[in-house]
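ok so i was messing around last nite and threw this chain in just to see what happens. nothing serious, just curious
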Amino acid sequence: MSILKLENISYHYDRSKVEVLDNINMEFNENKIYTIVGKSGAGKTTLLSVLSSLAAPTGGKIYLRDEDISKIDRYKFRSRYVGVIFQNFNLLTHLTALENVILSMDISGKKFDRPKKEIALELLQKVGLDEGEARRRVLKLSGGQQQRVAIARALSYDPDIILADEPTGNLDGETQDEIIGIFRMLANEGKCVIIVTHSPEVAAASDVTYELKKTIA
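result:
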C-alpha cells in the first residue's frame, strides 16, 4: 500500500479555465526519494501545494494510506503527516536555529515524551549543525546551514512525508551533495521524500522521477 496516492488530480485557479494540473496520477512509498521535474509553468510548485494540502485540488482525490485526505482536517494533515521545506527556507530570521525548530514543535500541537529542546538539538545535529550553530540566530548562518535548519524544522514533529521545493536551488554543488545525502538518510530511515527540482543531479540521485508536462491552453 502506498503512503500517498494521487488519483486523477486536476487544479485550476478560480478565474481560469486552464488546468494547471490535468489528470495527474502518481504513487509514493516510504523508504524512497521521489523527484518531480518539468519546465517552468508545468505546475510543479502547484502540485507541491496540493500534496501538502495548502491548496485543494479542483478535481480528483488524494489518499493517505487509502484514506481520502479531504476527510482529514487540513491543519492536522499539514502539522502531523507532512513536513514542508520551502525554497526560500521561510525561517524566522530573528530567532536562533534551535528556536525555529522548537516553535515548529509547539505549533504542531503534538505531545513529546522528552523535552522539546533536547529533541530539537538532536535533529539539528542529525542534519549537520553543532550546538554552537544551533544557538546562532538564523541571520548569522550560511545558506547551506539555513537549509539544514529548514530540514530539521520539517522533521520536528516526525512526519512520514517530507516535501521539498527546490531545496538545493540556491546552494553550491558541494552543499547540494550534502543535502541530497541528508534526504537519502531520511529515506533509509523510512521517510517518503518528495522533491520538486530543476537539478539533473538531484533527479539522478532519486529513486523515482515524475515529469510534469506543461498544460497547453
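not much to say yet. The first helix runs from residue 44 to 51.
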